[in-house]
């Protein structure tokens, strides 16, 4: 293996040459305490930065065993190291000048969520692989070797030493990150045991500083659980923690405008991910399968059975296999609901403000004016109990203007100046009086006695479901997905660029031209001639998740998995199986992993595939 001295001599030999001469630097160099790998060199100083990585052996990194002996602890520790390196790189970046991206040093810059990222991997023995980007210096398109030597031989080693070679303070920080991961794992385990879809610890800070910031709002009122909904959890490191437990079933969040309804729901929808210490939502956890639903005017829909919600269309179209390039608000929300069930969601999250009104409810006056036989939409309020009682799918809904969901709810939380209050019994009393006055018919949920509601919920939690209609059953069946004949697998004679086969059994070597991928941050991506609009997939919290989804879709398309024969669930399972078995290299067209990818949930891959057009 070459050494740092060899790298220094190579740099001196290419000074003031054309930029392509930098490509001769590719390879691995021994710096003594770590190795530097120059994996890919950019074509010119204005192109995407070069891809580099450092490898720090376990006896040098100083990582305690408790930070790497379980998958959830490794992920938390990797996240910590990425944040440390990103901070050091930001201070070293552009300290050497030049044209284009000259002098840039950077890696992933995580938000408050803790995600598995391609930027860092920790081996069981404590060795650390940290991937990053660097803009090799130039003036115009002429190599500046002196500036490159300072960047590669001085600035980057300092970043490595400060971020990845842990002193006592660094080891304590890593241990705290691992302990928080233990506690978060314990919260999720306790939720499953107690039949909860969500937990919000007392003292959590839910409001954010602004609509475009993930930072907690300074001076915000800490969350306090209603006494009737309070549960106590025993965590391995924090000990006894109290907070609000939202039970499985149908829960409403109500209250006046600006009182914190949507703030609570947003905390719940992002509670499918663990959060870093200091975020304020470290101990806010939601069922990992929870999916936030909303209307998406104009989205594409591929052969979805929306008949449980929309039927008997005036134009006679079959809604048992409904497709459109331009869905309405109600149609898109119906399709997204069925797709969420297909993706395995056990909890649905809905905000009235971002929903199609005619999909959610239909009031008595409208029914009196427009006869039911002239209305093709069966509103969600008439299906939500069946989803829970027949299929065990819970729902948390924010409602601010319609009381139509009160009769079918199991519990009601009122947000009052960001204070949560359990008003279930008060709602039950109001409903009882209204029912006696003939204001509404008998209904499950709060429309029945507390004992009956409890028995129904317990039966559903135990998996005792009543016979369901064929349309309801169909909504839970994974369908094949075929996008048509626009994709061609093109063979190529180029021997230098080979992509490993990642379809089928995941073995062998595929020789084909890779589809071009273009990302648009969290908004979506293009793969070949296909485009995915993900702007309204709200639980995608990081652009690196979208980048990973783009590569997963590329693999799916290149291997012809969307052939109309395989169930979509099988396609998604195969994509994640390959990622788990082959690592981040599976998502690189040429087998070399780079920073810039973060692991999405399987339901997000469902969402991306369902939105391809």
Can you characterise this structure?
The structure is a single chain. By secondary structure, the chain is of the alpha+beta class. The chain is 32% helix and 20% strand. It contains 16 helices and 30 strands. The strands form nine sheets. Strands 1, 2, 3, 4, 5, 6 and 7 form a seven-stranded mixed β-sheet that branches. Strands 17-20-21-15-22-23 form a six-stranded mixed β-sheet, with helices on both faces. α3 packs antiparallel against α4. The chain is globular, with a radius of gyration of 27 Å. The relative contact order is 0.10.
Report the principal-axis shape: globular
> What structural class should be given to the helix and strand makeup?
alpha+beta
Spatial gap, N to C terminus: 48 Å
Mean pLDDT: 89
Percent in helix: 25-40%
User: Radius of gyration, Cα only, in angstroms?
Assistant: 27 Å
Strand content: 15-25%
Specify the biggest β-sheet: 7 strands, mixed
Number of DSSP E strands: 30
The number of helical elements comes to 16
Unreliable runs: 447-475, 485-511
Characteristics:
32% helix; 16 helices; 613 residues; globular; 7-stranded mixed beta sheet; alpha+beta; 6-stranded mixed beta sheet
Topology at a glance:
Layout: E1 2-3, H1 4-13, E2 27-30, E3 35-40, E4 50-56, H2 58-61, H3 71-92, E5 105-106, E6 120-122, E7 128-134, E8 138-139, E9 142-143, H4 145-164, H5 168-194, E10 196-201, E11 208-210, E12 213-216, E13 230-235, E14 239-247, E15 250-254, H6 261-270, E16 284-286, E17 291-293, E18 301-304, E19 322-324, H7 329-342, E20 347-351, H8 357-360, H9 364-369, H10 384-391, E21 394-398, E22 411-416, E23 419-422, H11 424-436, H12 450-461, H13 470-474, E24 480-482, E25 499-500, E26 509-510, E27 517-519, E28 524-527, E29 530-533, H14 543-558, E30 563-567, H15 568-582, H16 602-610
Parallel strand pairs: 1-2, 15-21, 15-22, 17-20, 20-21
Antiparallel strand pairs: 2-3, 3-4, 4-7, 5-7, 6-7, 8-9, 10-14, 10-16, 11-12, 13-14, 18-19, 22-23, 24-30, 25-26, 27-28, 28-29
Helix pairs in contact: 1-4, 3-4, 3-5, 10-12, 14-16
């Amino acid at each position: 293996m070459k050494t740092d001295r060899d790298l220094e001599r190579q740099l001196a030999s290419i000074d003031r040459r054309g930029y392509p001469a930098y490509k001769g630097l590719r390879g691995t160099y021994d710096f003594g305490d770590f190795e530097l790998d120059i994996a890919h060199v950019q074509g010119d100083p204005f192109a995407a930065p070069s891809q580099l990585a450092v490898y720090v052996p376990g006896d040098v990194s100083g990582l305690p065993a408790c930070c790497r002996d379980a998958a959830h602890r490794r992920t938390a520790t990797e996240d910590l190291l990425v944040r440390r390196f990103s901070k050091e790189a930001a201070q070293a970046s552009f300290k050497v000048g030049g044209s284009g991206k000259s002098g840039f040093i950077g890696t992933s810059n995580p938000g408050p969520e803790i995600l598995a990222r391609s930027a860092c991997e920790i081996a069981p023995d404590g060795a650390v692989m940290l991937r990053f980007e660097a803009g090799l210096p130039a003036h115009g398109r002429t190599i500046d070797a002196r500036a490159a030597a300072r960047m590669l031989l001085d600035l980057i080693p300092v970043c490595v030493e400060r971020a990845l070679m842990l002193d006592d303070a660094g080891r304590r920080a890593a241990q705290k990150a691992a302990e928080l991961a233990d506690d978060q794992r314990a919260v999720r385990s306790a939720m499953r045991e107690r039949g909860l879809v969500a937990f919000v610890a007392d003292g959590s800070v839910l409001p954010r500083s602004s609509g475009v910031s993930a930072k907690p709002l300074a001076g915000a009122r800490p969350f306090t659980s209603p006494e009737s909904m309070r549960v106590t959890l025993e965590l391995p490191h924090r000990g006894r923690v109290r907070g609000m437990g939202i039970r499985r079933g149908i829960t409403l969040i109500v209250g006046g405008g600006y009182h914190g309804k949507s703030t609570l729901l947003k905390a719940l929808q992002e509670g499918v991910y663990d959060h870093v210490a200091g975020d304020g939502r470290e101990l806010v956890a939601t069922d990992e399968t929870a999916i936030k639903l909303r209307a998406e005017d104009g989205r594409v829909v591929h052969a979805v059975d929306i008949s449980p919600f929309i039927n008997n269309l005036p134009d006679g179209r079959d809604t048992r296999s409904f497709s459109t390039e331009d869905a309405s608000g109600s149609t898109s929300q119906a399709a997204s609901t069925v797709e969420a069930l297909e993706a395995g969601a056990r909890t649905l999250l809905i905000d009235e403000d971002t929903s199609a009104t005619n999909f959610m409810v239909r009031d008595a006056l409208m029914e009196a004016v427009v006869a039911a036989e002239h209305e093709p939409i069966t509103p969600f309020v008439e299906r939500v109990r069946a989803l829970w009682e027949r299929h065990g799918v819970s729902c948390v809904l924010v409602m601010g203007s319609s009381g139509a969901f009160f009769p079918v709810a199991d519990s009601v939380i009122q947000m009052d100046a960001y204070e949560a209050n359990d008003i279930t019994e008060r709602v039950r009393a109001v409903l009882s009086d209204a029912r006696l006055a003939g204001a509404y018919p008998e209904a499950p949920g709060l429309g029945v006695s507390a004992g009956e509601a409890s028995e129904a919920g317990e039966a559903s939690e135990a998996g005792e479901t009543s016979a369901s209609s064929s349309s309801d059953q169909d909504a839970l069946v994974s369908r094949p997905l075929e996008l048509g004949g626009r994709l061609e697998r093109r063979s190529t004679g180029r021997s230098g660029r080979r992509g490993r086969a990642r379809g089928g059994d995941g073995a062998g070597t595929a020789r084909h031209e890779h589809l071009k991928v273009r990302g648009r941050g969290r908004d979506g991506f293009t793969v070949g001639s296909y485009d995915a609009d993900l702007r309204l997939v709200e639980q995608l919290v990081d652009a690196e998740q979208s980048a990973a989804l783009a590569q997963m879709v590329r693999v799916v398309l290149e291997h012809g998995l969307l052939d109309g024969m395989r169930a979509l669930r099988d396609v998604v399972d195969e994509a994640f199986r390959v990622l788990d078995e082959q690592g981040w290299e599976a998502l690189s067209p040429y087998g070399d992993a780079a920073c810039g990818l973060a692991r999405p949930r399987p339901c997000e891959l469902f969402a991306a595939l369902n939105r391809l057009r």
